[in-house]
Amino acid sequence: MKPDNFRKYAAEVVEWMASYMEHVEEFPVKSQVAPGDILSKIPDRPPLKSEPFEQMMKDLDSVIMPGITHWQSPNFYAYFPANASPPSILAEMIIATLGAQCMIWETSPAAAELEEKMMVWIRDMIGLPPEFEGVIQDSASNSTLAAILTAREKATAFETNENGISSYPTLRVYCSGQAHSSVEKAVKICGIGRKNLVKIPVRDDYSIDPVELEKAIENDIQQGFKPICVVAALGTTGTTAVDPIRRIGEICSKHNIHFHVDAAMSGAALLLPEFRWMIDGKEYIDSLVFNAHKWMFTNFDCSAYFVRDAASLIKTFEILPEYLKTRTRGQVNDYRDWGVPLGRRFRALKLWSVIRYYGVEGLQEKIREHINIAKQLAGMISNEPDFELLAPVTVSVVCFRYRPAKHDEATLNRLNEKLNHTLNDSGKIYLTHTTLDGRYSLRMATAQTNVTLNHVQKAWALIKQTARNTSVER
């Protein structure tokens, strides 16, 4: 494609992007296609000859867009958000244009040094101690894997990297029953095994019970196991419950256990001074991750991973083949040694763009507004006699259910499941669910970049109307 053609098509694509952002609310939030619908519209074989770019754009609208679930719609309340914003999108375009592979300092010094500075900015913005160093990972899942691998190596004097895990069959990792599934995946990947992941009961607010945690650790030690890592949730996936950081940290310090904090969603709330209570006990934390691509308006993927002991992280992952040796090694951060992948994108540019465009105060304003919307939604739910809240509202996730009188728990579960599917199939809003003490709970996250109280009020009116028209047979 020649430069003049590129300019022409690029202008058309940018217009398509801007139009999409303007009209995203008009699309069904959740894709309405059935399995195989998109597959059947794509040719079985690739074209032998060049096709005009205009045809690709036509097919984008006719073939691809019907199968897109619109995460950037302000009517998207499912899961956690995967937020984008105009300054982040513009930076992503520059990243794609540069096409830099930022595995080491030598391959793009600006990428490495901007990443280093962005991690300092964010560390200070969320109130972590100055001894923490940071690196951008692709996801909280890989960050948690990095934390558990580091804990494994520290606990075995870095012998498992050399000799394998078979000599250490008694390593143990701990988390709550509400922890993210990435913890379970990580213990599988790193060879510790699912049977050695101990899930601790939770308290009434769905945070981990530190008394039960300490009992489990001490019992395991007596049985000959070696506790190596506790993963706390600063905002569980189901309810955004906050585990007691100080108490867990004291337990970890007492037993010399690596303490990792998964703050994937709620960590962004640490930008607000009034939410720093969530990391009371931060002096005990060994590693912490939060996703800028969830609630800091930086499009996927971009996870901020912080460690107190960068040397142990690097020692866990570093490997130096001849073709990666450089004259600057040891003088700079070669971030390919800070995690699993060798290849790395120039993600820091997105953070730089977002933080500079909004400023710290602008980011704080949006996050506060989302939290305030969640509180108002919780109030609306509490005011309805046939609805009930099922968990405390900590930040921007509200868990609730429809509860008409004279239904047993099994019927209520079926009723709320049907309600969830009916709402999502309408295309007007998108909710997901969790299960709390055996109760099917609707789960509404009010943290999409452009969501307003007006959007949530309309969604709540739709939920009430749909619920009261929904019935299930006993």
- Using the coordinates above, name the CATH class of the domain at 100-345: Alpha Beta
What is the strand arrangement across the widest sheet? 1-7-6-5-4-2-3
Count of beta strands: 11
Looking at the overall shape, the CATH architecture of the domain at 100-345 is 3-Layer(aba) Sandwich
What can you tell me about this protein's structure?
The mean pLDDT is 93. The strands form two sheets. A seven-stranded mixed beta sheet has the order 1-7-6-5-4-2-3, sandwiched between helices. A four-stranded antiparallel beta sheet has the order 8-9-11-10. Helix content is 43%, strand content 12%. The protein has helices at 3-23, 37-41, 53-64, 86-98, 109-126, 140-155, 160-163, 181-189, 210-222, 245-255, 292-295, 310-317, 348-382, 409-426, 453-468; strands spanning 133-137, 171-176, 197-200, 226-233, 258-262, 287-291, 303-307, 387-389, 397-402, 432-436, 439-445. It has a domain at 100-345: 3-Layer(aba) Sandwich (Aspartate Aminotransferase, domain 2). The termini are far apart. The chain has 15 helices and eleven strands. With 474 residues, the chain is of the alpha/beta class.
